[in-house]
Amino acid sequence: MSASTVLAPLRKAAARIDRQTPAHRDRAVDGLRALALLAVPAGHWMLGGFTLDADGGLHNASPLSAFGALAPASWVLQTLGIFFLVGGYASALSYRRRPGSARAWLQGRIVRLGRPVLGVAAVWALAAPVLYAAGVPEASLRTGAKLVVQPLWFVGVYVVVTALTPYCLRAARRLGGWAAAPLLASVAVVDVLRYGPLAASVPSWLSLLNILPGWLFAYQLGVAWGERRIGRRGAWLLLAGGALLFAALLAVFHYPASMVGVPGAARTNSHPPSLLVLALASAQSGAAILLRDRLARLLARPALWAPVVVVNLCAMTILCWHQTAMLAAAVPASFAGGVAGLTMAPDSLGWIVARMAWVPVFAGLLVVIARYARRFEAPPAEGRGASALRRALRRAAAGLLAAGFGAFALGLA
User: Is the pTM of this model over 0.85?
Assistant: First the structure.
């Protein structure tokens, strides 16, 4: 069978998707969202690893602990700045043309985000006892639970910043892109307090004050972009200013180079976000705005546009289930002992090479899981009476299971 025969159905599917895409669809923004989404599993799969204890239990580890030179890879793979930028842009456009009230608009978005989160948490809550009975060590289950919950914090933060969209719009219309400057200043002040001369007398909870302004920064930029208040000059300022600030924070103020948490490290940039995260988000946002037209021209090609559509349709499935795909390979392998690139300590170049070979396996497992998990992204069927009652009971049961799983993951259960 020739390659053209194999590829013919894919070309037809891509052409069909291209024809069905509305002319007003902003392909560049969808493309940026897809890139940001795919960077999440890529980062977790390449920069996360495991070690085995004496009882065969899995524990989190990272190649960044042994290879600090890999830190620049985290600069590329940490794309939450772009995700929040695109989210702010899309929310600005969506809010402006909302058919109903602001409350209904926000409720619809919360439901779309919350349903997949409840789904993955409920499934894991049901699966954990079964896996334990099958012989999976409790250490592996706790490690798996933490990995599954880890990306889901983003959903809660995203809901909060989305709820602030009306206020972000007012700020953008009055100040343009400069509306994000006070957020940057707020994070800078907290960083000076927690890392400066007074750090010893500052309570540890003070760093939590960076969570909202830290992630709202790029979202506010996206809202201003959606309001057409950031042009090419502003984009160049964001790119150059963010890059210079990023370099200064690393070279002069000695911020940790990694954009993701490293086990055992005294400081982390992303939980909660430090000023380095905002500097990177600024540079990424400027680059994204400048590359928008070029990206739109590239995505006019059906073969490139079709994968973007598929990724966006499965956005929450990818976010919620990519760690499960990795665990679906690692947990069975843990019974065989040390497996290169999977359950052996990520402290050698051989591990990095082996992990690159495992990434396509994780991707394949995610595709298989997504065939079934995708239903959590689908809206519930309409109905009344008994069917509505059943849906309410299912939601309540899923909520209780999710809460129990979250408590287990956080070590409270």
Answer: yes
